[in-house]
Design goal:
CATH topology of the largest domain: Rossmann fold
Low-confidence stretches: none
Number of domains: 3
CATH superfamily of the largest domain: Nitrogenase molybdenum iron protein domain
Mean pLDDT: 95
Distance between the termini: 85 Å
CATH class of the largest domain: Alpha Beta
């Protein structure tokens, strides 16, 4: 890890090397895939399965029998952990559920807001270098709590045309209604426009590679999306008496995700930073995904030295990380000072992986500094709100001249007349 003495005014973004990727070729390819799926539906999805996944698909829809076989043959310890994690996620997200409101004034005016679940949601679950049953739980359970009536999951098949058993088990535990054997940009297109086998949805959620992210961006407006997720990030603020072995392990927990993942340390002591860096170098060789983690650390692993913890939090707010660990003795003293972070892990015994799998808060988080203005996935992402207004005729009459004045000031005489015409004498 590169060790940097932080000074006010430094270009932190440049130091972290979180540059943009040239997407022009990807944009063109994705646009062509989307258009093909729009025109050719299931046939296009099957062609892409053969081209990209190396398998022939007869039936794109996973059958109930396939799901039951996966669940019944799964390791029972894993199923128990999956179900306990799901219960923790349900408990936390149930606190996010909100009700509408209705205001009835003495003069008969009624105002209010309805909270309505999104009707149909599509979930993308990645394949590739790793698959994540935890992401199934995190994306589906809040949707179920919100009251979404249909949840359609798309995920790439393996070369035999099957979906990994762990993913099917998580889908059953979480409450997925339909599973489609399709991945990549083509599956996003199918969710947005519908095919013979894939229902057209109202919102698409879930992480994916650059082709999936680009497809989500291109279909936005036709459907809603959750966010455009970038590479994983972790930032650890640590006091010098923290255990460098633990801090290094926590940094590597994100570095192993992706060669573009970022692992950042902020501390007040340079010798501690060096100890963590040495531990990262030692531990990275022990990981099965060591090549990915090593590339991440080489390019995006940084350790900043600051004067005090207040400056550490200020720098963390500037970075606005996806995951922020406060590995300090009194983390709650710093909590109110944190302004920009996806999820905050308090104390020296709260590794980021606790949030990834088990504690209950969501692990689908804003990346790439978007924590400055966006939030973790929640029940709120699966609802919409409508407002309503009722005025008795007598109250509209009292307000008509004020409404007309406002409308005429904006040059919208038709607006004004739609009110005043109701009180003109009939001739």
């Amino acid at each position: 890890m590169e060790i940097i003495r932080y000074k006010s005014g430094m270009d932190v973004d440049a130091l972290l090397n979180r540059g943009t990727v040239d997407r022009m070729d990807v944009e063109k390819t994705v646009a062509e895939i989307i258009e093909n799926v729009r025109k050719n539906g299931d046939s296009a999805l099957k062609d892409y399965a053969l081209k990209f996944d190396g398998c022939e698909i007869d039936n794109l829809v996973v059958t109930d029998g396939e799901i039951e076989n996966a669940y019944n043959s799964a390791d029972r310890d894993f199923i128990r952990v999956l179900e306990e994690a799901a219960e923790n996620i349900r408990f936390f997200h149930s606190k996010q559920k909100r009700d509408g409101f209705r205001i009835e004034k003495e003069n008969g005016i009624i105002l209010g807001q309805k909270v309505i679940p999104v009707e149909k949601v599509g979930l993308y679950v990645p394949g590739g270098t790793a698959s994540y049953p935890s992401s199934v739980l995190m994306n589906v359970i809040p949707a179920v709590i919100a009251g979404v009536s249909e949840i359609v999951m798309v995920t790439p098949p393996d070369k035999s045309g099957n979906i990994r058993g762990d993913i099917l088990c998580a889908a059953k535990v979480a409450g997925v209604n339909k599973i489609i054997k399709s991945g990549g940009a083509q599956s996003i297109a199918a969710l947005a426009y519908g095919t013979e086998s894939v229902p057209k949805v109202d919102k698409i959620v879930g992480p994916g590679n650059i082709f999936v992210a680009t497809a989500k961006r291109q279909v936005f407006g036709k459907v809603n999306i959750d966010m455009i997720a970038g590479p994983s990030e972790i930032l650890v603020v640590a006091e010098p008496d923290a255990n460098p072995k633990y801090v290094a392990a926590d940094l590597l927990s994100q570095a192993e995700h992706d060669r573009l993942a970022a692992a950042v340390l902020i501390t007040t002591d340079e010798s501690f930073a060096k100890a963590v860096s040495d531990e990262v170098d030692r531990q990275v060789r022990l990981l099965p995904r060591c090549e990915i983690a090593a590339a991440s650390v080489e390019n995006y692993g940084k350790a900043f030295i600051v004067d005090n913890l207040d400056e550490a939090v200020e720098l963390a707010n500037e970075v606005a990380p996806e995951h922020l660990e406060l590995a300090v003795n009194n983390p709650f003293d710093l909590l109110d000072k944190v302004k920009n972070a996806g999820s905050i892990f308090l104390g020296k015994n709260v590794p980021e992986a606790l949030g990834d799998y088990f504690a209950g808060p969501n692990h689908t988080l804003p990346t790439g500094k978007t924590a400055r203005f966006s939030s973790p996935l929640s029940v709120d992402d699966y609802i919409k709100k409508s407002q309503f207004i009722y005025y008795p005729e007598t109250e509209l009459e009292k307000a008509k001249d004020k409404i007309a004045l406002f409308a005429e000031r904006e040059g919208l005489s038709g607006h004004a007349r739609s009110v005043t015409i109701r009180f003109e004498d009939e001739k």
